[in-house]
Amino acid sequence: MTLNSADPAFADRLRDVLDPKAFREVSPHYLDEPRGTWSGHAGLVVAPADVAAVSAVMKAAHEARVPVVPYGGGTGLVGGQIMPDGPAPLLLSLERMTAIRTADPVENVMVAEAGAILSDIHAAAEKVDRLFPLSLAAKGSARIGGNLATNAGGVNVLRYGNARDLCLGLEVVLADGRVLNGLSRLRKDNTGYDLRNLMIGSEGTLGVITAAALKLSPRPVGTAVAYAAVPDPAAGLALLSLARDRVGEGVSAFELISGQSLAFLEEKLPQLRRPFDPAPEWMVLIELGLPAGLEPQAAMESIIEEAWERELVADAVLAQNETQAEQFWEVREQIPEANRLIGSVSSHDISLPLSNLPAFIDRASQMVMGMGPFRINCFGHLGDGNLHYNVFPPQGGDLAEWRSHTGEVKRAVHDLVHEMEGSVSAEHGIGRLKTGDLERYGDPVKLEMMRAIKAAFDPHGILNPGAVLKG
Amino acid sequence: MTLNSADPAFADRLRDVLDPKAFREVSPHYLDEPRGTWSGHAGLVVAPADVAAVSAVMKAAHEARVPVVPYGGGTGLVGGQIMPDGPAPLLLSLERMTAIRTADPVENVMVAEAGAILSDIHAAAEKVDRLFPLSLAAKGSARIGGNLATNAGGVNVLRYGNARDLCLGLEVVLADGRVLNGLSRLRKDNTGYDLRNLMIGSEGTLGVITAAALKLSPRPVGTAVAYAAVPDPAAGLALLSLARDRVGEGVSAFELISGQSLAFLEEKLPQLRRPFDPAPEWMVLIELGLPAGLEPQAAMESIIEEAWERELVADAVLAQNETQAEQFWEVREQIPEANRLIGSVSSHDISLPLSNLPAFIDRASQMVMGMGPFRINCFGHLGDGNLHYNVFPPQGGDLAEWRSHTGEVKRAVHDLVHEMEGSVSAEHGIGRLKTGDLERYGDPVKLEMMRAIKAAFDPHGILNPGAVLKG
């Protein structure tokens, strides 16, 4: 299908349906991706103020066959928000639609516009003594519409699920401007096909999310945070089982961190207080969030004690207060930034069936080390089976030189993941970075049905062309 | 589209691809629905033994344009499994695909074939000290494929979600026999559009579910069950908030039951031990399931005590042992059977935003009583906002006579639900009973997109024709 650039004539056409404030400068921050790996282009950036304006923009783009890239906080890691070539797209930013319309502690429901920033949503939930549990490193700039479009994960998936599990309803503008009114606050609604979940995770290729009804949770009454050094990832999983046997859903987060993670933090962000010095080879960050009647600090101590006796834990530090708990989390959350500053040869956001996970880490290490003297930073959401398995040049090595290995390393890691029944995109999505992987590893029948759905929802192929499905 | 009956010539064709045991007698139990309201027909009933055989059947049906009704346990309440007219369909029963392939307590995953009976799945989970939380009155005959196809709800949705939330992956045979291999055991997998959730709740109109990977949960260490008489449904909701503030996710179930429910049980199933005599106008059944370290009985007592002080509870009985807890649940689970024995003028499976729920009950009662001397049995899953709002003839009234009011009552109740932002099918689905409601109350854009998806997945319209979407 031939698409046309968002040229000045098209911009003029939009002036009839948009207020002047909607027209934004095409500045670099719309076009660069967070890791600085590559840049996109755009003919025009607009930020409509409401759903009617989004609908008018899409209608015009549909008629003029102009590609549209829906844009949230720009924090995506797989290039879903970056169109590198082809006709210059219209970049449709949700940045002006940031209202949090309601936050109801009785219904445990919040209704927010797509451009609301994740940390603002956290604050609004806290104001009514509730929790919106989706949390990730980019929470200060990520927008909820993008979080939903990519089915974001983060550190609380273990307990509360991913973005998909936290959404009750969506308002979505379709490719041709029609508005799907699905902003339901209902917990149960079995009236027809599940279009909400079809939109969630479709990365802006089936529609533009403009508002969402979100599930809120009770805030745990007491929390405890600890770092535990574990002999290996299998011990980490055993520790997780132990913790869950003790406190059930009370395990809010369970993150695996490698010694290499701390070494990178020491090198690039030395001001951060690291939990262990020297760093153990493997450690886990545990957060408990418990109801009234249970002492979280005591529960954590008792879990660690039993783990110690079973030789699942070699050393541990418990946060003694709120500030220290925040410092513990800061260490975890700054790992991606340290990685960025080091510069990776290849990064992998992968998941595995839990019982295959320890064997994967062993096999992958041997394999990657066999390919060169790489440094591996393996960390992530252990309880979800989701690893960020990132490969870096040797100490003092020149990244530019080692980048020639990127393709080979990526392919080998992804082949192994696939062989071990895992996924090559656990939480970041396909974007434009992994369309080849989806074709290589995805079920062919699934791909056929995805193409059929795309054709039905966006017959001219204007929505985020080249993302998820190759053009 | 013209479809052809599953006639003897088509049966002969299937003999090439199916073993002789797959051919079943077209007996009445395949054709009657649980409430006995109407019957279906079928030209042929087959029960394939594996996914390859299901695929071969669908391929043949697709080529011959023969309608196919996928059939699980036959417990659906909206006629999704009953085709009353048109060309005689092939009824495709999953009754021979009952294997539970794995139940892994480390991964917390079970893989089961679609024909596995829900209570067998419960037992298999219990064997590995885990919980599969989906539970409903028909658990002894409902099959998991049907539970997923209808996105079944039940009594534990409050804590664990509905069928959708308990499924990690699906194997599905499409209309033309292609097999969608999505039997993933992964907790996180963002590789492409969410076809799993599109299939879940599509009621056999987009594909035939043949196997599923299911999420297991830790078994709560201690449970407590109580009945509390509450002054009104609003007090019930306040009691739920109180309980959740105390024990968080530990509230496993919270069911509203009306005095009318107990009166019907007394009339039709007098051998059941009722919790209160005389029956209060409203009561709730509460189940707590708590981790180690918390005494569930003490937690329940303390919740009830505070509720008593706040005048949210007028009377309460706590189950003193396992047997009594089962008796308490038996009362709840036999309500649909008592209703069936009385015979309703109109039954409604509805949901409302929680904050509209008490007002709905008041307004609906006034409205229905204004239409005649009906008896109303309102009960259901209060925490989910899901009511079973059922209308019966007056004491001693002749059902046949009062059934002339069915259309009028149903319409009035559904109109009110819609006005109050609720759903006219909370957990039972659309089936064939509510296709008119879906057209009347559903978002027109949603309906358009549903039709587009149906056309893409089943171009000849052979899969469960007339269910969900009118032909």
Could you please describe the fold and organization of this structure?
The structure is a homodimer of 471-residue chains. Chain A has 471 residues and is of the alpha+beta class. Among the domains of chain A are: 100-218, Uridine Diphospho-n-acetylenolpyruvylglucosamine Reductase, domain 3; 222-336, Alpha-Beta Plaits (2-Layer Sandwich); 343-428, Alpha-Beta Plaits (2-Layer Sandwich), CATH 3.30.70.2740. In chain A, 34% of the residues lie in helices and 20% in strands. In chain A, the strands form 4 sheets. In chain A, strands 15-12-14-13-17-18-16 form a 7-stranded antiparallel sheet, with helices on both faces. In chain A, helix 7 (233-247) crosses helix 9 (296-309), helix 8 crosses helix 11 (335-342) and helix 12 packs antiparallel against helix 14. The longest helix of chain A is centred in the middle third of the chain and has 15 residues, at 233-247. Chain A is globular. The model of chain A has no long low-confidence stretch (mean pLDDT 96). Chains A and B meet through strand 9, helix 6, helix 7, helix 15 and helix 16 of A and strand 9, helix 6, helix 7, helix 15 and helix 16 of B.
List the helices and strands and how they pair.
2 copies of one chain form a homodimer.
Chain A: H1 8-15, E1 23-24, E2 44-46, H2 51-64, E3 68-71, E4 90-93, E5 100-104, E6 109-113, H3 118-127, E7 130-131, H4 144-149, H5 157-160, E8 167-173, E9 179-182, H6 195-199, E10 208-215, E11 217-218, E12 222-229, H7 233-247, E13 251-258, H8 259-268, E14 282-290, H9 296-309, E15 315-318, H10 322-333, H11 335-342, E16 346-351, H12 357-371, E17 375-381, E18 386-392, H13 399-402, H14 406-419, H15 435-441, H16 444-457
Parallel strand pairs in A: 2-4, 3-4
Antiparallel strand pairs in A: 1-2, 5-6, 6-10, 7-11, 8-9, 8-10, 12-14, 12-15, 13-14, 13-17, 16-18, 17-18
Organism (chains A, B): Pseudooceanicola atlanticus
Pfam families (chains A, B): FAD-oxidase_C, FAD_binding_4
Keywords (chains A, B): FAD, Flavoprotein
